[in-house]
Amino acid sequence: MKYPTIEDAVGQTPLVALQRIEAQANKARGNVVLGKLEGNNPAGSVKDRPALSMIRRAEERGSIRPGDTLIEATSGNTGIALAMAAAIKGYRMVLIMPEDLSIERAQTMKAFGAELVLTPKSGGMEYARDLANSMVQQGKGVVLDQFANADNPRIHYETTGPELWEQTAGRITHFVSAMGTTGTITGVSRFLKEKNPGITIIGAQPQDGSRIPGIRKWPQAYLPAIYEPSAVDELVLVSQDDAEEMCRRLAREEGIFAGISAAGACWVAQQIAARHHNATIVFVVCDRGDRYLSTGVFPA
């Protein structure tokens, strides 16, 4: 008998209906708001999907092989997922991340055996990405490059999108995702639009001055190459305060212990619900709240 491995536990995550947040208003409009629990993946986020996809496909192409050094700039979740995937596949993993990201993320990466290079907070992810590219040019390893790697959105086209279509029996009318690397929203949009061009795809981005882990509004020079603007019908800005308050509400009112970017997507989903009737709105719960305990978002 062949037993499943940890790789087989990635994907097929639950889709659950919110029961209390804005429940009366949504019921009156005939709307349902659903969260895709990507924190149920083994390394705890939606990034488990592209991390394994990028390594598997690179192996298939012969561009990497076990024992090689992989380098990646990350704000957290991709780094954790890649650290897990590298541990599974037998790679040395070097992760570059800004120093101000949560201690839980750094500790989790190290637990999987990854090596961390911390960059100045002032440089943000842009500096981390530049450093990763510089290290590759110096021959220190191979960058999978989540920001430009087509295997990132491809796995969402192949798995996340089909799961949502099946789980809603084709009833989904709106899809909301936080926008960081943009792999999730690009790949899911591609699949859902093929099934029904009338489905509306909404991206959550931070308001000016807001720092929401996992949600970015990139300068033009750093816009991810995998991003397809035509894949997103609407961009909605969310403030840090609204995202953090929704983070607490999801835990207290729904029993969903989610991260801040996931809560930002939920806040946007509720704004969409307030404008529509008889809608089936899905947002991505991209990770779990235990990655943010040290940030102070949850009451001590």
From TrEMBL:
Q: From the UniProt record, give the pathway where this protein acts.
A: Amino-acid biosynthesis; L-cysteine biosynthesis; L-cysteine from L-serine: step 2/2
In terms of CDD domains, this protein maps to: CBS_like
Reactions catalysed according to its record: O-acetyl-L-serine + hydrogen sulfide = L-cysteine + acetate
A GO MF annotation of the entry reads: cysteine synthase activity
Q: Which UniProt keywords apply?
A: Amino-acid biosynthesis, Cysteine biosynthesis, Pyridoxal phosphate, Transferase
According to the lineage, what is the superkingdom?
A: Bacteria
| Tryptophan synthase beta chain-like PALP domain segment(s) | 6-287
Q: Which InterPro entries match?
A: Cys_synth, Cys_Synth/Cystath_Beta-Synth, CysM, P-phosphate_BS, TrpB-like_PALP, TrpB-like_PALP_sf
Q: Which cofactor(s) are needed, names only?
A: pyridoxal 5'-phosphate
Q: What class of enzyme is it?
A: transferase
Which Pfam families does the UniProt record give?
PALP
EC number of the protein: 2.5.1.47
Family matches, as Gene3D superfamilies: 3.40.50.1100
Family label: Belongs to the cysteine synthase/cystathionine beta-synthase family.
Return the protein name: Cysteine synthase
